[in-house]
Amino acid sequence: MKTWLPIVLAFSFLTACARQQTPPPPEEDMLYRLECFYQTNLDSASRILDTLDISVLSEKERAHYCLLKARTNQLQWKVGAETDSLLHEAENYFANGKDQFLEAITYWTISLDALMTRKGVKFVLDYQLKALQSIECCRHVDERFVSYSPKPTTEQNVIDNIKYSITMRLGMAYAESHYYWESIRYLKPTEAFFYDNHLYTMHTTTAYGLGLSYMRLNEPDSSLKYFERGYLSAEKRGNREDMALYHSLLARLYKNMLENHLYEDDTEAKTLLLKAVAESKKSLDILGDTLTKYKSDVMDVLAYAYCELHQYDSCIYYAKQVYEMPRSLWKSEAAHYLYQSYLALGDNEKALHYVNLYLGMDHDDVSEMMAVAKVKEEYDLKMELQNKDNEHQMKRMRLYLLIALLFIALLLTLLFVSRYRKNKEIEVLRLREAQRLLEVELGQITGQQKEMLQRRVMVIYQSRVKDRLQRILDEFEAAYPKAMERLKAACPNLNETERRIVVLSFLQFRVKEEADLLGLTENTAQKYRSNIKKKVGFDPISALAD
Question: What confidence score (pLDDT) does residue 451 get?
Answer without folding.
Answer: 84
